[in-house]
Amino acid sequence: MKEISLEDQEIKPEASEESLKALIALAEKQSEIEEKLEKNAAEKKTLNKELEKIAGGWRNEGTLPMMLEEIGMKSFEMIDGREVELKKQLKVPSMAAKSDKRLIVLEWLRKMKHTDVIKGQVSVPFSPGDDRLEALKEAIKKVGMQFDEFETVAPGTLTSLLEELIENAEEEVPMNELGVFEFKQTKIKALPKKKGAL
């Protein structure tokens, strides 16, 4: 079993050697699963579930994040140089047309003056050969046709905005109402690949 570098680490005095060994074993297991995920896409779903049990995710707290918190650590460096870090993550709701949270999120973004992240799309049905298409391109409101408007927010954009608002405590984010979940997850920074290695 590999060891970890404990220099410059603040560890609670009650952290036992067994706990630290278990911590190392879990970090090694997480790293092995991540390597398998890269190599074998067919096992991805099963491996992702197994990885989430160790590293954490929005459906599962994860054994490694819980152990890090119990011991009082936020990160550690393994003897081979890989760094294991505990991070807070957000799971935002789907912004697909049929999502039950899409309109709630859009309403909240407007209310809080974050309309700059909302993307709009207009769809107008035309029969084949309908001459009004060209007129609509000129001035959609003058044509007098009905149209559906679809607005959405890219998940990454919504996640970034909410993370910033939460971190800076600029305004209250109604997590439950928006369907947003905060969870903790460990990330392992891989070592740089050596030249000539596959």
Task: Provide an overview of this structure.
The protein has 198 residues and is of the alpha+beta class. It folds into two domains: 4-88 and 185-189, no CATH class; 102-176, no CATH class. The chain contains eight helices and six strands, in the order βαααββαβααβααβ. The protein has helices at residues 17-39, 44-55, 63-71, 102-111, 132-138, 140-143, 155-168, 175-178, and strands at residues 4-5, 75-78, 83-91, 119-123, 148-152, 181-189. Strands 1-2-3-6 form a four-stranded antiparallel sheet, with helices on both faces. Strands 4-5 form a two-stranded antiparallel sheet. The longest helix has 23 residues, at 17-39. It is elongated. The mean pLDDT is 83.
Number of E-type strands: 6
Overall outline:
elongated
- Report the sheet-strand fraction: 15-25%
User: Helix/strand-derived class?
Assistant: alpha+beta
For the biggest β-sheet, the strand order reads 1-2-3-6
Number of domains: 2
Q: Count helical runs.
A: 8
- What is the radius of gyration? 24 Å
Would you identify the regions where 5 or more consecutive residues have pLDDT less than 50? none
Helix-strand pattern? EHHHEEHEHHEHHE
Helix content: 40-55%
Overall mean confidence score, pLDDT: 83
